[in-house]
Amino acid sequence: MKTWQDIFAKKIADMGLTEPWTLQKDDTLQVHVLKPGWKEFVQRRALGRFQCSQCFYEWSSAKAHILFHMRRHRGWGMVCMRVFRQACRRCPNPQLEEPEFSLETTERLLHNLVLKILEYCYGVHVQTSKLLEVVVDALVAGPHDSARCEGCQLGICSKAKLATVSDAWKPLKGMDKTSIHRTPRHQNTRPYATPTHHSSTTTTNFPWKRCCWISISLICIFAVVLFSLLHFTIL
């Protein structure tokens, strides 16, 4: 940690910052869990070298991540950092081991950290091109072991985030596919033909008004004839 603090102090001075800044380690830091006034920076894709404390197996990983929380308050600044660990894949009950970084990698990591301090704490516009890429200068064999990576378990690794997003969309895609390709229940059946009743059609077209007028006329004529017969009979 002494090497990190010395390089950090030099980077702060090189950037022209006169306020005192301190760098310390804190293994309790959580991503996106910040106290009021604190800012966060996550450095991804740094080459770290690991060694198992039980079987002494060594391996390298290009996905060693570091979390920084920073704050400027009343003329001084503080940075807390957490390096995420990995476990040995050969031991049945492995412990989480911290990585070691080369001097060049440490220089680049702290250079990017100081640029983020200028941006977050002093309002200096920092172009993305000024951030140094942490070069992977060693051959890394095999895929990243997410099950033994502390960063993946806490959602730091980009691979874990992509998997979470992909799983979240699967039900929606499946639902859309089902609704699109679902066959309607009566799609292939013939339409129901309503039978035609000719009697009802004939009844509907029958001239009711004409029949009524004829009936009334006949009743009137019958009444006149009956009245005449009764009149002559009485006389």
UniProtKB/TrEMBL annotation:
It is a single-pass membrane protein. InterPro entries: R-trans_p, ZAR1/RTP1-5-like_Znf-3CxxC. Residues 45-155 form the 3CxxC-type domain. It is found in: Membrane. Its main location: membrane. The chain crosses the membrane at residues 213-234. It comes from the Eukaryota. One of its GO terms (molecular function) is zinc ion binding. One of its GO terms (biological process) is protein insertion into membrane. GO terms for cellular component: membrane. Pfam families: Zn_ribbon_3CxxC (PF13695). The keyword Magnesium does not apply. This is Receptor-transporting protein 4.
